[in-house]
Amino acid sequence: MRHVRPPVLMVLPLLLGAIAAPAQTSVTGLADFEGRTIGRIDFDPPSQPLPRDELDRLLPLHTGSPLHQSDVRQTLQKLFDTGRFADIAIDAQPLGDGVALRISTQFNYFVGGVSFEGVADPPNRNQLLTATKLELGAPFAESQIRQSVENLQERLRANGLYRATIRYDLDRNPSTEEVGVHFHLNTGARARFDSVLLSGKFDLPPSKIVRATRYRRGLGSIEFPGWSQATENRVQNGVERVRRDFQNRNRLQVRVTLERLEYHDKTNTVTPTLVIDSGPLIQVVTTGANVSKGRLRQMVPVFQERAVDRGLLLEGGRNLVDYFQAQGYFDAAVNFDQESPAPGVQRINYVVARNARHRMVGIEITGNRYFDAKTVRERLSVREAGKIRNRYGRYSQKLRDNDRGAILDLYHSNGFLDVQVAATTLDGYKGRTDELGVRYEIEEGPQSIVNQLEMEGASAADTAYLRGIIQSAEGQPFSEASIAADRDAILTYFYDSGYPNADFDWTQTPSGVPNRANLHYTIRPGERQYVRNVLIRGLEATKPEVVLSRVSIRPGDPISQGRIGEIQQKLYDLGIFSKVQTALQNPDGAEESKYVLFQLDEAAKYSFNIGIGAELARIGGGVTTFDDPAGATGFSPRVTGGISRLNVFGLGHTISLQTLVSTLEQRAVLSYVIPQFTGNQNLSLTFSGLFDNSTDIRTFAAQRAEAAVQLAQKLSRANSLQYRFAFRHVIVSDLKIEPLLVPLLAQPVRVGLLSMSFIHDRRDNPTESHRGLYNTIDVGIALPQFASQTDYTRLVWRNSTYHPLSRDVVLARTLQFGYIQRLGGLAEIPLSERFFGGGASSQRAFPDNQAGPRDPETGFPIGGNALLFHSTELRFPLIGENVGGVLFHDMGNIYSSVDQISFRFHQNNYQDFNYMVQAAGFGIRYKTPVGPIRVDFSYSPNSPRFVGFSGTRDQLLTCNPNLPPAQNPSFCVGVPQRINTFQFHFSLGQTF
Q: What is the pTM of this model?
């Protein structure tokens, strides 16, 4: 106790730990002022971490009230409970007939952000931040810094930075009680390996072991002179490579440990010492059935876990049982024994008894009235034999019993509390001794219904809202699963409404009516917490208004973790932050309002990408000859690359340059993207410029320069709009068409096109759709007011639907329709603006861009002003989980105009291309992380016939179309040709 001067009553400095039992604190001399009226309460310093009105509500001491020792102790307790104060002292002195109080405080500080300068990755910023153990918003004590520095030094040394030095600065902000911690790293040169020391028992030459570590410089297994830099990952990966090398030699119990990593300061090098115990040679074999070594390695987990114990061996036996059951040996049994046939050799022998092979051909479900058989079957793991995959079906007693439990859970969650399910295996199903069936007999029993639901503890408005989101409403099935879902929904609502300590409980009482339950929900919201202010930290290049415009919570709002998460996602969506941390300052403190913290780490300004690919199909080429107007099988390598500059002008904008170079096309696209335009997360604005030189349409080469602006608007999760204006200039060259048409179609053309797209997407998975629909409508108009030389309207509509026929079989279909209507300007729609189609993504009866009208002299496609394509696919599993098959039918064509669209099957003559071309075929799909790789083979019974030209360009110019064929040279006589009836397509991604 500290006495200031007489007649001071008392001083109470207390530490946090001393407040654990305030009732036991003794205060001497209080009796002199006990009961006197409090005339004034002052705080020192006057500016406190909590607003004065909140302090007045929090403290039991008030001006005009009598002073009591119990109120003083309670005041101390409440102030310490806020977490805002490191030390508190209360002084009292006479004030007339009353008493004046002075509350002196020392503030706590909280971590407001941690930053690093001089990072030499590795370790990266996130690893360094984790090492400091300084959590955003948590209480801060300067004593923590010493441990943080030690942790950082340890992390740097682990990555070869032994000469690193660290200093730090603390930036205290008394107004918000924040401390920003800035670490300055001088990492110095990274140490290199200089050798590898080996000890222990092993039978490999040391040179092979050292080579396995890859501590030497090199590329993969190719070594270069010298040693690599020492990093934590490289050290650990080297140890693991040695371990795997031994394990691949069936030394599964090998032990490889890093005994020490000795640093040599003079040379700035490290020497790792590895201790190796190769262990016995492990042999895993089977008797009674042949299993390949590769399959054994997949199924016996001793190879993955790199250890041998009874649990892993038992698991391997179960995996082998599953393997044989998948082949129809449903009664298969597997045991194992261990022996040592020679010193240093351990053999594990799996004894397999496959027993008789069966086919699972029938699944019977009886007694179900509430759920139909399809709903029950969706939850079963037992499978009937299929035609292609699972030829013997899928069955085991374990699967059958698991299915019984799944059916019970289904009924229990829907109020059938007394449901009974019996699962019986039917041997010799329907008289066939080698076939099995399973019968699930369901006795549903009565369904329990919620008779009445009462809610206690929530306001009338909250109760009305909650009744709309819960499952256990009056008249709904009663189950504990529904109540658990209600609990989650109710607590989530209160957590997002600023009640972090909300609690929920429920009771059930009889209703007096059979199978009816009365429910009583008790909700205890607790104290509500509000936003004191939002603190944004970590911005360097980014302008603050970019972030603030996306922060939708304001001081005085309830603290909502849901809204904070939405803001965090908005900031990530900008693409300019590598990390967005959120926290509440002083999270455990008992205070009415808290600071909401956003700590932002800006991403690197520049990013690069490069890719290599190829296209294999009947593709373009040959711009100097008239050979193969229907396309020729070819190979086109492709290289893509790009550079992006993020956060331009600190506004969150991105400018990027993407390029593509192949034998068919050379393209460069410069774009400037403004995400979340005007701060609206549903808007994005893009300016782009494009230069493209392509020969992917065999009829001509096109050089295009284009500038465009697009505003994209997301209306809902499924619906979006795009508004765009494009202005382009196209130069067409190397035309392979009738010479009389060249002056008309070879002119450079300017096009100004205003267009809009509507997209409606309800697919379950855009890359591998199983259900849903996808609609797009694109409309545009080119007018002279837009400086366009050709005036037209354009519409393209697409509708795709996906219907699951079973768990693995999908019926998919798509329809595409489009037309171009000339309004004025040039006499013909330019070649570059026409529709071209056919190929892997539209009509597989054609090579790419080979559908539709053709030049009558040369036979090359000239595009059309209308299109109609329809495709149907039956998608099904083929081999295993990753290989699928497709049966497809395509129909459609490119038409000269919309009024020439015809469903005719037959081509009238060599000049008739306005008919419906048909194709049917088979495809294979192989699943990959970026989408399925697909190969399609198609047959078209009515592929187009046409007349082509067999000569050269110069010879074509000498031909006179007004002369009879007998008077023209022989090369002027057209050669009848036909699109090959068989086509193949190789590409990535589903057709639609």
A: 0.79
